[in-house]
């Protein structure tokens, strides 16, 4: 192809004795760069051809010809990125040596292009670059010099940070960076993320600098070699992630301290939570704003006793990250985000009204199109880059959560999870702020993914939650604070559910709710939370997107399995099928509207003389049981299942396989947790299980067998003699 022709021309130029070949080299490099930026060729060149051209090009250009050095580095950058070439070790050694020598010898105006070439060369090649690490990351390493906070050229700093981030990418089954180099890189990325934008730096360049640093931190954490252990390291990283999570979010300006500090957690102490609560003073003379100060000092003292940090380091700052935020919540109407538009109004009909203080969030924008075009191309581009920073920070936060022990992570709960606002005080900023206010659906989904990971495995942490008793106390016990946070999470997630229009983000909201339901101690909280979730999730069972429907069933499964049997859930299951519907009946798919239709699908069900006493009408089955059986045994309706052709099942006679599997699992959980209610439909459920075991799909067979097993276990438990 054209690369081989260029290779031949390069060879011919190198053999020419005169110095007049510079112009031809310029023209040749321009042609190659132009082709690498143009339309995709019919056949992509092989890695050997790309490497041969790059090596030959570097051999043709001495380092004193700086314009050609700049062009050959652009060529390395473009060709490697365009054709996704992994350079072999021999050629990598030559090209890296060339770039490092060029950085040392050439003028500063060439350095950005050289660093871009370096970044492309080391990408996914870190393990092969070991012998060059002292030159790049050593005490006076080139990348450390160029990424220094004092570096006035931000483009140069960004290129150096990007090269460093690419070096940190881990390659499976290959040696990783030594601990000393990892530490140097981590500190560099941290200092970049802690820096503020100066007036002489444009928004897009600063966003790209932040993105490179966030990718670097994420690579270090994903490599699995770097575990965050030190409190100061964790606190500093979480502080910058919190700052970047809100970067450029319209209508919001926050100041985050350089480090967040964890709260002590009684759940993970050796003392029991009850004793911990009793050991707190019952009264306090401090009131109003003084009470908060007293609380902060008390917690700081506890840190000192446990030896987690030096109290002197904390200064006069409050321990909890949320208390350290200075909020400037502007009126959303004045911010440059798209005009909010009412959404999901049909879904809202017939719902339990949300608490009155929820209305402050209702004017938020959650448009499917990420950005408004009315402000011109530049503003739209800036907002796009700012959204990328927020997404990068959230992706990095997700990796951070996996690198920290849960008992350590939950010390920072109040900095990222909403709490009910006090009277007259503003709503604290949290992950839910992004889920409710960010104009980008992708960013909202990222925030919900992080919140879901935060909630996963939180059962022990949330176990101390308890609603406040009626009598007033002079201080708020820790258990009441956690209960308040659980209630606020329910409120915000249900609000997000009503407001959301993006199917992908809806799926994340419902998954997040399922994680919350699975871990919250409802037996210690006042009833009502699960009823609101139950009623508001019903319309989403018939959503056009199959993933939303599957996750909605997962949520219902979480409700019937959490701390079963719960009195509140028993009441919900006893409600007749028609309850909870609005006037249009939209809470249940149309084909489920006939009470008898699902029974007719099971020919012999309900015919036996043992089913119901003489003269008694059969009871109307509970909504959830009828729904699950209908999904499993009734043929699909195109109007309800038009969303996804990725789930073919039985020639599309039935609902998509993931939906049927989830319905089977919900039935099994229902039988396990609430057998006295489920046994009224024992024969029907047995027939469903047997039908599933006769199907061809092994996963349907397996879950049919599990349902049958739960039915059998329920019967055995019921007839077991009381011990």
From TrEMBL:
List compositional bias (Basic residues) regions by residue number.
Answer: 287-298
Q: Where is the secretion signal located?
A: none
Q: Where is the composition biased (Basic and acidic residues)?
A: 268-278, 299-311
Its domain of life reads Eukaryota
Instruction: List the gene name.
Output: Heatr6_1
Q: Which organism is it from?
A: Panurus biarmicus
Protein name per the record: HEAT repeat-containing protein 6
* One protein family per Pfam: DUF4042
Residue intervals of the DUF4042 domain: 389-569
